[in-house]
Task: inverse folding
């Protein structure tokens, strides 16, 4: 199937109707507008996709509620608010949930400038901070100069509520400054800026950027962007309901507690890009940042971080005891083609086949649990747009998109359409050497709840 598509070039927005099995080559030079460019995040999708889905599926004159159950860094949420709709994002990852929250929270710019100016002036005066990362090897990851300066900034950000009060708008500004702080950490560390995993390369030596210069310029960028975002979404007052457009981000598991987290809210459209099989270790990716802000989520040490990894769909962090009794012969999924692929992985990869077939089986089981949960939250006729890439596991190709279609179909959805687009920004998208699967095309699956 993957070989049979035709490629079409798109210069502006994605056309409302994309022919079946077409792959678009979308000009993506505008992916950081508004607050989209606040923080790097692995496997972000391009804003054009949720924008297209919103235009296609919703009546623009009325305020609706849009859900992203794997919201990551909040691309869907930002686009929903810009289109004048309320939105709910769910993600198991605490840092991504905070990034999403900050990207979608309009701020009082006068108060923001007051607190930011205080922060800048205090940084200039302060010689030493009292915040220390809970990591014995911190000097491997950062230079002494970076450690000292990051400590000063983090110490001062901690003092904001003490100094300016505990009101909600002050806390919102404090979180905004924390994400601004987090966004410079990779660049001021000794670790490679672009790789998916956090590591210090001994062959490709890096000169970390100077902390204060980078933080001040990033803060300037953040303030300009949030001002424009706040002004734009605050102007979207709906005369019928007379309220401002809003967003809520919940840190939760979308394969287990989605229905409970949504608490009976009526969803008008769901848009998401779920995790890939075995491809991204989100926690490993954020290790440098978590040394400096992980205490907020109880993820400040490497051992706390490692124990969190198990919770992610698609994770490869699975203990042997969990799969010791599993084989794709004694446990089948009930989709023939998928079961045969799992057997192929198990039989052909002598070293890792057992583990990899279980990881893949678990991925589809968790995604099925997700479809069961999401089906409870969507009423008949509600569209669910899902963006996903296919994968390679132990040299066996998995048409993840087609298997997800089969799973969705047996859990209350019909597929209306499938098209794809070429992935351009490969930032943090691949496992090295393609072991987790080289994903060149993202498939857009257009489901409807039956
Ligand atoms: C491909 S990313 C989404 C990226 C997002 N579209 C963006 O633009 O930033 C998939 C997300 O699924 C999240 N995830 C993994 N397992 C999850 C689970 N069980 N429940 C909720 N979210 C989960 C990951 O933390 C990750 O943020």
Result:
């Amino acid at each position: 199937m993957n070989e049979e598509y035709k490629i079409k070039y798109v210069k502006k927005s994605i056309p409302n109707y994309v022919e079946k099995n077409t792959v678009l080559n979308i000009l993506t030079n505008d992916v950081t507008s508004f607050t989209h460019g606040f923080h790097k995040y692995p496997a972000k999708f391009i804003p054009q996709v949720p924008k297209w889905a919103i235009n296609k599926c919703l009546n623009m004159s009325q305020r609706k509620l849009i859900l992203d159950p794997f919201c990551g860094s909040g691309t869907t949420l930002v686009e929903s608010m810009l289109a004048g709709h309320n939105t709910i994002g769910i993600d198991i990852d605490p840092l991504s949930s905070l990034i999403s929250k900050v990207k979608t929270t309009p701020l009082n710019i006068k108060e923001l400038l007051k607190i930011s100016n205080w922060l800048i002036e205090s940084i200039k005066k302060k010689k030493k901070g009292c915040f220390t990362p809970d990591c014995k090897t911190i000097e491997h990851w950062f230079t002494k100069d970076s450690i000292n300066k990051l400590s000063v900034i983090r110490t001062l950000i901690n003092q904001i509520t003490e100094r300016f009060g505990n009101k909600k708008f002050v806390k919102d500004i404090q979180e905004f400054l924390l994400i601004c702080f987090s966004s410079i950490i990779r660049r001021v560390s000794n670790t490679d800026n672009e790789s998916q995993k956090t590591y210090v390369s001994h062959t490709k030596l890096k000169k970390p950027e100077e902390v204060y210069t980078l933080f001040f310029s990033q803060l300037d960028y953040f303030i300009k962007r949030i001002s424009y975002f706040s002004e734009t979404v605050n102007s979207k007052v709906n005369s019928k309901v007379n309220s401002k457009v809003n967003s809520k981000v919940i840190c939760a598991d979308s394969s287990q507690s989605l229905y409970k987290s949504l608490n009976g809210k009526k969803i008008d459209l769901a848009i998401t890009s779920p995790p890939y099989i075995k491809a991204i270790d989100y926690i490993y990716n954020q290790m440098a940042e978590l040394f400096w802000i992980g205490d907020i989520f109880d993820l400040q040490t490497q051992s706390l971080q490692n124990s969190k990894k198990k919770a992610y769909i698609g994770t490869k962090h699975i203990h042997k005891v969990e799969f010791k009794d599993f084989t794709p012969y004694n446990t089948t999924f009930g989709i023939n083609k998928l079961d045969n692929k799992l057997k192929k992985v198990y039989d052909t990869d002598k070293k890792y086949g057992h583990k990899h077939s279980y990881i893949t089986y678990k991925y589809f089981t968790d995604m099925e649990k997700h479809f069961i949960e999401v089906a409870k939250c969507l009423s008949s006729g509600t569209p669910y747009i899902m963006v996903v890439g296919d994968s390679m596991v132990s040299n066996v190709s998995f048409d993840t998109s087609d298997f997800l279609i089969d799973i969705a179909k047996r859990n209350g959805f019909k597929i209306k359409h499938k098209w794809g687009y070429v992935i351009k920004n490969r930032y943090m998208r691949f496992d090295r050497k393609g072991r987790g699967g080289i994903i060149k095309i993202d498939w857009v699956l257009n489901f409807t709840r039956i």
